[in-house]
Amino acid sequence: MVKRVMIRSVSVPIKAGPLLLRNIITKYSEMTPAVKAALIDLSGTLHVEDQPTDGAVEALERLRGLGVSIKFVTNTTKESVSSLYARLIKIGFHLDQNEIYSSLTAASRFVQSNALNPYYILTDDARKDFPVNDNARDYDSVVVGLAPERFSYEYLNEAFRILHNSKGAARLVAIHEGKFYKTNQGISLGPGCFVKGLEYSTGVKSVCIGKPNEYFFRSAMPDGLKPEECVMIGDDPNDDCFGAMAIGMKGFLVETGKFQPELYEKDALPKVSGIFKNFGAVVDHLSGMLNQ
């Protein structure tokens, strides 16, 4: 019987010879590209409101030391990118503002490229990232983000009327359709149910801009990289992990945000690339992968 050795998880005949062995190793390397970039969710992954998650500040520095390109990808729509950046700096993270790719940014580009004049259901701070309205034109669309103080009958009914009275001509733009998110007070309602309510009442199907939209992930990737060379780290099985995995990335899930493992049976946990206690544990895993 020919004995075999293991190269990571590849079984290789020990008498294969140097040429065959080199070919096998080369082929395996092509099958499992090195991780060159990490796309990292923010709220629930690196921080919860004004508190970093356990060990996240230090773990981010360790990840930078691995030579991995970093992009912070977020569906956060309560605050502008500049306010989000200031918050992260204040609580101890080291980053550049241009490393943040927000669904607000993507949605603003969508509004501009389609020359829309929207009715905005956004916070005043998030509104800073969008074009000003043209008061000489009627509203031709509705843009919905996470704006708890505007999820009232007054604002939602105005949005309904714009969509309903347009007879299908107006656009409904969902910056994202998150079901819920984590705050200091616990799990809180996201904007998704309000978007779906407007869809139900008006018959207008929304255009979803943020995660898990394929366009969002592809536009957030560093130039020149393939999805297989990138990993996504987040706290939402669907929006973060499954969205990224759908285009070929690995999706690593953390337990510090909206994902609640205690609500799942052991054999019914999300089928992601890996589930970790926190962001630091993911960095440890990536360090092991890169140093093998």
TrEMBL record:
Keywords: Magnesium, Metal-binding. Its cofactor is Mg(2+). The keyword Ribonucleoprotein does not apply. It comes from the Eukaryota. PANTHER family: 4-NITROPHENYLPHOSPHATASE-RELATED, HALOACID DEHALOGENASE-LIKE HYDROLASE DOMAIN-CONTAINING PROTEIN 2. NCBIfam families: HAD-SF-IIA-hyp3. Belongs to the HAD-like hydrolase superfamily. This is Haloacid dehalogenase-like hydrolase domain-containing protein 2. It comes from Aedes albopictus (Asian tiger mosquito).
